[in-house]
Amino acid sequence: MDHNQLTTFDRIVREGSFSRAARELHIAQPTISARIHALEEEVGGALLTRTNHGVQLTALGVSFLPYARQALAAMLEGIEAARQAR
Hints:
This protein has helices at residues 3-15, 18-25, 29-43, 59-85, and strands at 48-51, 54-57. The protein is mainly alpha-helical. It has a two-stranded antiparallel sheet with strand order 1-2. Helix 1 (3-15) crosses helix 2 (18-25) and helix 1 (3-15) crosses helix 3 (29-43). 19% of the residues are buried. The model has no long low-confidence stretch (mean pLDDT 95).
């Protein structure tokens, strides 16, 4: 699990779409799909389901999302602390 996977997951949830998330992150949609697939492999199941109207969180996705966001926040805080220490 890495920063890019967590950022991608969070952005898909916020945008409600793989394609909008890809545009916002300036990466190709296959890259988005690969990141989510790898993340789902690590957590042991599907986090999102695609629908005609975008994406929806699965029950696993709902339970994982707050932890993904906490991890992202901790990473950003750590980066900022390291910058200030210089």
